[in-house]
């Protein structure tokens, strides 16, 4: 499985707030299925939360994790 880099995905979610998979896929030049799989993995870690069937949002734990990846 090809994954989307966590830092890029978390940064996009941080910038946009709740955002649809198709928007993330276009911004990150990735297939929507890849984005969904990556977001689901990040949900398991508590960094991202699904708000609707195709929309995700960054959690506070996700923001903290993003700081460790960019700091």
Automatic annotation (TrEMBL):
Top-rank lineage group of the source organism: Archaea
InterPro entries for the chain: WH-like_DNA-bd_sf (IPR036388), WH_DNA-bd_sf (IPR036390)
Matches recorded under SUPFAM superfamilies: Winged helix' DNA-binding domain
Gene3D superfamilies: Winged helix-like DNA-binding domain superfamily/Winged helix DNA-binding domain
Protein name: MarR family transcriptional regulator
Source organism of the structure: Natronobacterium gregoryi (strain ATCC 43098 / DSM 3393 / CCM 3738 / CIP 104747 / IAM 13177 / JCM 8860 / NBRC 102187 / NCIMB 2189 / SP2)
């Amino acid at each position: 499985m090809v994954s989307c880099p966590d830092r890029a995905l978390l940064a996009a979610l941080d910038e946009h707030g709740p955002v649809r998979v198709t928007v993330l896929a276009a911004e990150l030049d990735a297939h929507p299925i890849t984005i969904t799989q990556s977001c689901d993995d990040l949900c398991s870690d508590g960094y991202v939360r699904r708000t609707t069937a195709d929309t995700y949002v960054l959690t506070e734990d996700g923001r903290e994790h993003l700081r460790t990846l960019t700091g």
